[in-house]
Design a protein that fits this description.
By secondary structure, the protein is α/β, with parallel strands linked by helices. It is built from eleven helices and eight strands. The structure holds phosphoenolpyruvate.
């Protein structure tokens, strides 16, 4: 079976105007133009999607969004539809990020609906899961991951999940400067892969990319990416500067 191609994804959260986003994306393009053995994705804020998408056209960097709504259109003030993201040039969409769960009432049930909507619009969902510090301290990490995977991916057929990406993001490591150790990350990733195998079979489990997210930086990425079940990274803070994210993208194992 083919090795999984790493995916290095930048989540720009609510940072950068569209002008600033285009400038950083253009700078990054120069830095990573020679990279051919891994996938790269940038997820700017909604107002920057179209201009950043234009800047990335015909390049080796794909465009992603940070969320979507599950209806195709309608009276849903403040939401954005899957087809709109597709038309803006998105290939990926981040779903269920811990900040959405923590501040905006996202649940495994709404995550499930968003994933279905993404797949129907031919967008690649990046499903974010991970435990809080309290849950880890209470030895609940695996049970939290079990629930997030089972409920988030409930009622999907195997064929729906061809382009699924999972991001393991321990909440205690996001934006905190604390990173999971290589062993903690590998253990969680291996567990997630075993859950995928139980639910959808060995082939899908083997093919699905599982990204690590949580204070990934130029100085820890090489070590993390050595682990066999880490297939890339979802990077917040350290993706905001082109030189830092450029280095992360070009990790060496
Ligand atoms: C994230 O937002 O998904 C993330 C992992 O953030 P940071 O890299 O800043 O911890």
């Amino acid at each position: 079976m083919d090795a999984r191609r790493p995916l290095m994804a930048g989540n720009w959260k609510m940072f950068k105007t569209h002008t600033e986003a285009v400038a950083t994306a253009s700078e990054l393009l120069h830095l990573v133009s020679g990279v051919t053995d891994r996938d790269i994705m940038l997820a700017p804020t909604y107002s920057a999607l179209v201009p950043v998408g234009e800047a990335l056209q015909n390049s080796n960097i794909s465009l992603g969004a940070q969320n979507l709504f599950w209806e195709s259109d309608g009276a849903f003030t403040g939401e954005i539809a899957p087809g709109m993201l597709k038309a803006a040039g998105c290939e990926y969409v981040i779903i269920g990020h811990s900040e959405r769960r923590q501040y905006f009432g996202e649940t495994d049930g709404t995550v499930n609906k968003r994933i279905r909507a993404a797949i129907e619009a031919d967008l690649r969902p990046v499903l974010c899961i991970g435990e809080t510090e309290t849950q880890r301290d209470a030895d609940e990490t695996f049970s939290v991951l079990d629930k997030q995977i089972q409920n988030g991916l409930q009622n999907f057929a195997l064929a729906d999940l061809n382009h699924l990406v999972v991001a393991y993001e321990p909440v205690w490591a996001i934006g905190t400067g604390k990173t999971a150790s290589t062993d903690q990350a590998q253990e969680a990733h291996q567990h997630i892969r075993s859950l995928l195998e139980k639910a959808f079979g060995q082939d899908l489990a083997h093919r699905t990319r599982i990204l690590y997210g949580g204070s990934v930086k130029p100085d820890n990425v090489d070590e993390l990416m050595q682990m066999p079940d880490l297939d890339g990274a979802l990077v917040g803070g350290a993706s905001l500067k082109a030189d830092s994210f450029g280095r992360i993208v070009q990790f060496q194992t």
